[in-house]
Amino acid sequence: MPLLAKEVLKVFHVDSWECGSQNWSDNFTNEFKKRRGYDLMPYLLTMTGVPVESAATSEKVLHDVRQTIAELISDIFYVTLSKLTHEKGCSFSAESVAPNNGKRWLAAL
Fold this sequence. Notes:
Helix content: 40-55%
Number of strands: 2
Strand order of the largest sheet: 1-2
Oligomer: single chain
Distance between the termini: 28 Å
């Protein structure tokens, strides 16, 4: 069967994102610090709608949170699937995953 599948399957397409809006994982604070260069924990209340320090600071933190989420979805989900698909000799395509800035992953493919 694997040989037949290689001859028949040419495109791997993800037609929908059924995971909703992702905003936390066990490793999120580490990834945030690595990607944004500062610790999210002092600003955690901004994710509940409570401003921390100032409105401008809170908006920047929320932007950075959203950017980190978009990058993680791209790097862990889409780039991984694309790599595995190409290793099998297939093309990869996917729909946007709005509202998580899903178009970012296109640049990585």
